[in-house]
Amino acid sequence: MTDPVSWSGIAILAGAAGAVAARGVRLPAATGALLGGFVAMTAGRAAGWMTSWPDLGPLRSVLTAYLCLHLGVELDLTRLVRLARPILSTTLARSAAVMLFVGGAARACGVPWSGSLLLGAGAVGTSPAAIAAVSGETRARGDFTQRLLAHTSLSTLIALAIVALLAAPGSAAALAGTLVAGGLCGAVLLIPLSGMSTRGPIVTCAGAGALLIVGSAMMTGPGRADAPMIAIIAGFLTASLAPNRETIRDSLRDLSVPCAVALFAVAGSSVLGAELAAALPLALIVCAGRLAGNLLGGAGRRSRLETLLDAAALLPIYAAPAVATLALAEPMNRSDATPALLALMAAGFLTEAAGMAGARWALARSGEGAAATEDPDAWRERMR
User: Fold this and answer.
1) d(C-alpha 114, C-alpha 98), whole Å
2) Where are the domains of the chain?
3) Most buried among 56, 68, 198, 323, by the most CB within 10 A?
């Protein structure tokens, strides 16, 4: 029987192999890493090579915080001010539509109200790590990319706000603490980063910042569910105020792909094949409801092509706030909510695997990201 710690290394290596294979078939590296980690974990358990698994939550949280810090740094204040009204209105419309479609479909299928609310709330947030992974790999820049990053950030905040409404008293104060923590972490990072001009120190400082962000999240919210929002706020504040913002962006982008491969290899290895199969019917309903909500919420505000690109790019679900809801909500019947929670986690896995490929296609189709057939760095140089 393989030692759990050694097996975690094997899973990450399998994720790296999956990333290489994904590049070969023109898929995002993170998609291959997710599937590689899942296959390695499933095979190891099926063969009886391992029965226990180390707690990789801290590693996963730090990697997620780094990618979300990168996402926040990529947000461009000038473009966001110009696009603020359509971004806000479309995000609110999409969030409402997604919650209505997913929650309503689950209730129609006989899921109790508690589970339906959990599914609807969990399906609102877009996975910031998935979007950051793809935008970093494709070197995407432009208005469409900014809308994508901004929607991801706002939907994450909306999902956390819904958690605050559904969970126990005092969680609203925790949400306010998340916003304050993001500002404080950004201020702490801004001081050293604004004086750096080389990539090595910038990346090292950002890594230390990711540790700081995870520690802050442990103090402001349940588990580490708030870390992505804190990281996004910190990154946005740093990039908005630092005079060397372009150097910071380029430096963090260089490390985004290896971080994404490690993160999604770990994420894939944490998914159990048996649970995924058992939750598959309800998970597919969640996936369909999220896609329908994205399409309906974005319809009528821009062209059909742009609506389709948005829906494809924004498919990945960020399910962590729903896990926090389950941990906090006292009135919720946990036995009713457990099947919904498993379905939500399965839907998160499916939508991240498919959604990262959709995001890459959308960014390339919009003309703002490198196509799968092109080298991202060479493509970016030509675009400049």
Assistant:
1) 17
2) 53-383
3) 68
Distance CA 66, CA 132 (A): 10
CB 28 within 8 A of CB 356: yes
Instruction: Give the pair of three-digit tokens for residue 241.
Output: 């105020």
Instruction: Calculate the alpha carbon distances from 332 to 7, 125, 167 in Å.
Output: 36, 21, 9
Which residue, among 223, 236, 220, 273, has the nearest Cα to 152 in the 3D structure? 236
Q: Are 205 and 189 in contact (CB under 8 A)?
A: yes
Can you give the pLDDT of all 384 residues of the chain as single tens digits? 455 556 677 778 888 999 999 988 889 999 999 999 898 888 887 777 766 666 677 788 899 999 999 999 999 988 888 888 888 988 999 999 999 999 898 888 888 887 788 888 888 989 999 999 999 999 988 889 999 999 999 998 888 888 777 765 556 677 788 888 899 999 999 999 998 988 899 999 999 999 999 888 877 655 556 889 999 999 999 999 999 999 999 899 888 999 999 999 988 888 877 778 888 998 999 999 999 988 888 776 666 777 888 888 888 998 776 665 555 444 444 555 577 778 888 888 999 999 999 999 999 888 888 877 777 767 666 665
- Please give the class, per CATH, of domain 53-383: mainly alpha
Say whether pTM exceeds 0.85.
yes
Q: Return the structure tokens found at 240.
A: 């908005």
